[in-house]
Amino acid sequence: MASITLRPARLPDERQFYVGMAIVLLAIVLAGFSRSFFLRPLFPDHPSPPETVFYWHGAVFTAWFLLLVAQTTLIATGRVAVHRALGRAGGVLAAAMVVLGCFVALVAGARKGGFIDVPIPPLSFLIVPLADMLIFGVLVGVAIAKRHVAQIHKRLMLIASISIVAAAVARLPFDFLATGGPIVFFGVQDLLLVAIVIWDFASRGRPHPATLWGSALLIASQPIRLWASGTETWLAFAAWAVGIVS
User: Fold this and answer.
1) How buried is 2 (Cβ within 10 angstroms: 0-12 exposed, 13-18 middle, 19+ buried)?
2) Number of Cβ atoms within 10 Å of the Cβ of 199
3) pTM for the model
4) Which residues contact 28 (CB under 8 A, 6 or more apart)?
Protein backbone atom coordinates (compact mmCIF):
# COMPACT_ATOMS: atom_id res chain seq x y z
CA MET A 1 0.00 0.00 0.00
CA ALA A 2 1.33 3.41 -0.95
CA SER A 3 1.90 5.82 1.92
CA ILE A 4 1.38 9.57 1.93
CA THR A 5 4.09 11.69 3.48
CA LEU A 6 3.27 15.18 4.63
CA ARG A 7 6.17 17.45 3.82
CA PRO A 8 6.68 20.79 5.56
CA ALA A 9 5.15 23.59 3.54
CA ARG A 10 7.46 26.07 1.95
CA LEU A 11 7.66 29.50 3.56
CA PRO A 12 5.93 31.25 0.62
CA ASP A 13 3.02 28.80 1.00
CA GLU A 14 2.69 29.68 4.68
CA ARG A 15 2.70 33.37 3.96
CA GLN A 16 0.07 32.93 1.27
CA PHE A 17 -2.14 31.01 3.69
CA TYR A 18 -2.15 33.80 6.27
CA VAL A 19 -2.70 36.51 3.67
CA GLY A 20 -5.54 34.45 2.20
CA MET A 21 -7.20 33.94 5.58
CA ALA A 22 -6.92 37.65 6.37
CA ILE A 23 -8.60 38.49 3.06
CA VAL A 24 -11.38 35.97 3.72
CA LEU A 25 -12.09 37.52 7.12
CA LEU A 26 -12.14 41.03 5.66
CA ALA A 27 -14.51 39.85 2.91
CA ILE A 28 -16.88 38.36 5.51
CA VAL A 29 -16.92 41.64 7.44
CA LEU A 30 -17.51 43.71 4.30
CA ALA A 31 -20.30 41.42 3.09
CA GLY A 32 -21.93 40.97 6.47
CA PHE A 33 -22.14 44.67 7.28
CA SER A 34 -22.61 45.91 3.71
CA ARG A 35 -26.29 46.74 4.12
CA SER A 36 -26.14 48.27 7.61
CA PHE A 37 -22.78 50.05 7.37
CA PHE A 38 -20.56 50.02 4.27
CA LEU A 39 -23.32 50.43 1.66
CA ARG A 40 -25.96 51.83 3.97
CA PRO A 41 -27.21 54.54 1.55
CA LEU A 42 -28.07 51.81 -0.97
CA PHE A 43 -30.24 49.99 1.57
CA PRO A 44 -32.32 52.72 3.25
CA ASP A 45 -34.92 50.22 4.50
CA HIS A 46 -32.44 47.89 6.15
CA PRO A 47 -32.35 48.18 9.96
CA SER A 48 -29.34 50.13 11.22
CA PRO A 49 -28.29 51.32 14.67
CA PRO A 50 -29.57 54.82 15.50
CA GLU A 51 -26.60 55.69 17.73
CA THR A 52 -23.58 57.36 16.13
CA VAL A 53 -21.16 55.40 18.32
CA PHE A 54 -21.95 52.24 16.36
CA TYR A 55 -20.46 53.77 13.23
CA TRP A 56 -17.28 54.62 15.11
CA HIS A 57 -17.33 51.03 16.31
CA GLY A 58 -17.69 49.82 12.73
CA ALA A 59 -14.80 51.98 11.54
CA VAL A 60 -12.48 50.83 14.34
CA PHE A 61 -13.24 47.14 13.86
CA THR A 62 -12.87 47.45 10.08
CA ALA A 63 -9.47 49.03 10.68
CA TRP A 64 -8.45 45.87 12.55
CA PHE A 65 -9.21 43.62 9.60
CA LEU A 66 -7.52 46.00 7.17
CA LEU A 67 -4.51 45.97 9.48
CA LEU A 68 -4.59 42.15 9.54
CA VAL A 69 -4.40 42.08 5.73
CA ALA A 70 -1.62 44.67 5.78
CA GLN A 71 0.38 42.85 8.47
CA THR A 72 0.21 39.45 6.79
CA THR A 73 1.09 41.04 3.46
CA LEU A 74 4.09 42.81 4.98
CA ILE A 75 5.41 39.51 6.28
CA ALA A 76 4.74 37.83 2.95
CA THR A 77 6.78 40.49 1.18
CA GLY A 78 9.61 40.43 3.71
CA ARG A 79 8.97 43.86 5.23
CA VAL A 80 9.37 42.70 8.81
CA ALA A 81 10.49 46.05 10.25
CA VAL A 82 7.35 47.79 9.01
CA HIS A 83 5.25 44.90 10.33
CA ARG A 84 6.76 45.35 13.81
CA ALA A 85 6.25 49.10 13.75
CA LEU A 86 2.58 48.68 12.79
CA GLY A 87 2.26 46.02 15.47
CA ARG A 88 2.59 48.69 18.16
CA ALA A 89 -0.36 50.55 16.67
CA GLY A 90 -2.20 47.24 16.46
CA GLY A 91 -1.88 46.73 20.19
CA VAL A 92 -3.41 50.15 20.86
CA LEU A 93 -6.15 49.46 18.32
CA ALA A 94 -6.97 46.11 19.97
CA ALA A 95 -7.31 47.77 23.38
CA ALA A 96 -9.63 50.41 21.90
CA MET A 97 -11.69 47.67 20.28
CA VAL A 98 -12.26 45.88 23.58
CA VAL A 99 -13.38 49.07 25.32
CA LEU A 100 -15.56 50.23 22.42
CA GLY A 101 -16.94 46.74 21.79
CA CYS A 102 -18.06 46.37 25.40
CA PHE A 103 -19.56 49.85 25.41
CA VAL A 104 -21.68 49.42 22.26
CA ALA A 105 -22.80 45.98 23.46
CA LEU A 106 -24.13 47.59 26.64
CA VAL A 107 -25.79 50.36 24.63
CA ALA A 108 -27.55 47.79 22.44
CA GLY A 109 -28.50 45.74 25.48
CA ALA A 110 -30.06 48.80 27.11
CA ARG A 111 -31.89 49.84 23.93
CA LYS A 112 -35.68 49.43 24.02
CA GLY A 113 -35.67 47.29 20.90
CA GLY A 114 -32.57 45.36 21.90
CA PHE A 115 -29.95 44.21 19.41
CA ILE A 116 -30.89 44.92 15.80
CA ASP A 117 -31.81 41.82 13.77
CA VAL A 118 -31.39 39.62 16.85
CA PRO A 119 -34.66 37.92 17.93
CA ILE A 120 -33.27 37.06 21.37
CA PRO A 121 -33.94 39.01 24.59
CA PRO A 122 -31.19 41.63 24.82
CA LEU A 123 -30.03 40.78 28.33
CA SER A 124 -29.60 37.15 27.32
CA PHE A 125 -27.84 37.97 24.05
CA LEU A 126 -25.51 40.44 25.74
CA ILE A 127 -23.28 37.53 26.78
CA VAL A 128 -22.33 36.93 23.13
CA PRO A 129 -20.58 40.25 22.34
CA LEU A 130 -19.11 40.61 25.83
CA ALA A 131 -17.60 37.13 25.63
CA ASP A 132 -16.29 37.99 22.16
CA MET A 133 -14.42 40.95 23.62
CA LEU A 134 -13.03 38.89 26.50
CA ILE A 135 -11.75 36.12 24.22
CA PHE A 136 -10.40 38.58 21.66
CA GLY A 137 -8.55 40.51 24.36
CA VAL A 138 -7.03 37.36 25.88
CA LEU A 139 -5.88 35.97 22.52
CA VAL A 140 -4.41 39.26 21.32
CA GLY A 141 -2.72 39.81 24.67
CA VAL A 142 -1.02 36.41 24.57
CA ALA A 143 -0.15 36.90 20.90
CA ILE A 144 1.59 40.18 21.72
CA ALA A 145 3.41 38.57 24.64
CA LYS A 146 4.58 35.83 22.24
CA ARG A 147 5.38 38.20 19.37
CA HIS A 148 8.96 36.88 19.17
CA VAL A 149 7.68 33.32 18.63
CA ALA A 150 6.29 33.68 15.13
CA GLN A 151 4.40 30.38 14.91
CA ILE A 152 2.45 31.16 18.10
CA HIS A 153 1.99 34.85 17.40
CA LYS A 154 0.53 34.49 13.92
CA ARG A 155 -1.88 31.70 14.89
CA LEU A 156 -3.25 33.52 17.93
CA MET A 157 -3.68 36.77 16.00
CA LEU A 158 -5.63 34.89 13.33
CA ILE A 159 -7.80 33.05 15.87
CA ALA A 160 -8.40 36.34 17.73
CA SER A 161 -9.66 37.86 14.49
CA ILE A 162 -11.90 34.85 13.84
CA SER A 163 -13.32 35.25 17.35
CA ILE A 164 -14.97 38.55 16.43
CA VAL A 165 -16.48 37.72 13.02
CA ALA A 166 -19.61 35.98 14.34
CA ALA A 167 -21.65 39.19 14.09
CA ALA A 168 -20.64 39.61 10.45
CA VAL A 169 -21.33 35.94 9.70
CA ALA A 170 -24.82 36.25 11.23
CA ARG A 171 -25.57 39.19 8.90
CA LEU A 172 -24.48 37.57 5.66
CA PRO A 173 -27.44 37.61 3.21
CA PHE A 174 -28.31 33.93 3.53
CA ASP A 175 -31.62 32.76 4.99
CA PHE A 176 -30.15 29.85 6.94
CA LEU A 177 -27.94 32.30 8.86
CA ALA A 178 -30.76 34.71 9.55
CA THR A 179 -33.04 32.00 10.93
CA GLY A 180 -30.53 29.56 12.43
CA GLY A 181 -29.51 31.59 15.45
CA PRO A 182 -26.23 31.43 17.38
CA ILE A 183 -25.67 27.71 16.83
CA VAL A 184 -25.52 28.21 13.06
CA PHE A 185 -23.29 31.28 12.94
CA PHE A 186 -21.02 29.81 15.61
CA GLY A 187 -20.74 26.73 13.39
CA VAL A 188 -19.72 28.79 10.38
CA GLN A 189 -17.22 30.65 12.55
CA ASP A 190 -15.73 27.33 13.67
CA LEU A 191 -15.19 26.27 10.06
CA LEU A 192 -12.62 29.04 9.85
CA LEU A 193 -10.77 27.38 12.73
CA VAL A 194 -10.88 24.08 10.85
CA ALA A 195 -8.98 25.79 8.02
CA ILE A 196 -6.10 26.49 10.42
CA VAL A 197 -6.10 22.89 11.65
CA ILE A 198 -5.99 21.64 8.06
CA TRP A 199 -3.11 24.01 7.35
CA ASP A 200 -1.25 22.73 10.40
CA PHE A 201 -1.60 19.13 9.23
CA ALA A 202 -0.45 20.07 5.72
CA SER A 203 2.50 22.14 6.90
CA ARG A 204 3.74 20.32 10.00
CA GLY A 205 1.87 17.01 10.17
CA ARG A 206 -0.07 17.84 13.35
CA PRO A 207 -1.95 20.75 14.92
CA HIS A 208 0.19 23.42 16.52
CA PRO A 209 -0.41 23.77 20.31
CA ALA A 210 -1.39 27.42 19.81
CA THR A 211 -4.02 26.33 17.30
CA LEU A 212 -5.38 23.76 19.72
CA TRP A 213 -5.71 25.91 22.82
CA GLY A 214 -6.73 29.07 20.98
CA SER A 215 -9.45 27.21 19.08
CA ALA A 216 -10.50 25.31 22.21
CA LEU A 217 -10.97 28.57 24.11
CA LEU A 218 -13.27 29.95 21.42
CA ILE A 219 -15.23 26.75 20.78
CA ALA A 220 -15.69 25.93 24.47
CA SER A 221 -17.06 29.41 25.10
CA GLN A 222 -19.91 28.92 22.63
CA PRO A 223 -22.03 26.32 24.50
CA ILE A 224 -21.14 28.01 27.79
CA ARG A 225 -22.60 31.26 26.47
CA LEU A 226 -25.77 29.55 25.27
CA TRP A 227 -26.22 27.86 28.64
CA ALA A 228 -25.34 30.84 30.84
CA SER A 229 -27.37 33.41 28.88
CA GLY A 230 -30.64 32.38 30.51
CA THR A 231 -29.43 31.88 34.06
CA GLU A 232 -30.59 34.19 36.84
CA THR A 233 -27.00 35.03 37.69
CA TRP A 234 -26.21 36.21 34.16
CA LEU A 235 -29.48 38.13 33.75
CA ALA A 236 -28.89 39.93 37.03
CA PHE A 237 -25.36 40.87 35.97
CA ALA A 238 -26.56 41.97 32.52
CA ALA A 239 -29.27 44.17 34.03
CA TRP A 240 -26.69 45.80 36.26
CA ALA A 241 -24.22 46.25 33.38
CA VAL A 242 -26.67 47.93 30.99
CA GLY A 243 -27.65 50.23 33.82
CA ILE A 244 -24.17 51.77 33.57
CA VAL A 245 -24.96 53.27 30.15
CA SER A 246 -28.71 53.83 30.46
Assistant:
1) exposed
2) 22
3) 0.92
4) 165, 168, 169, 172
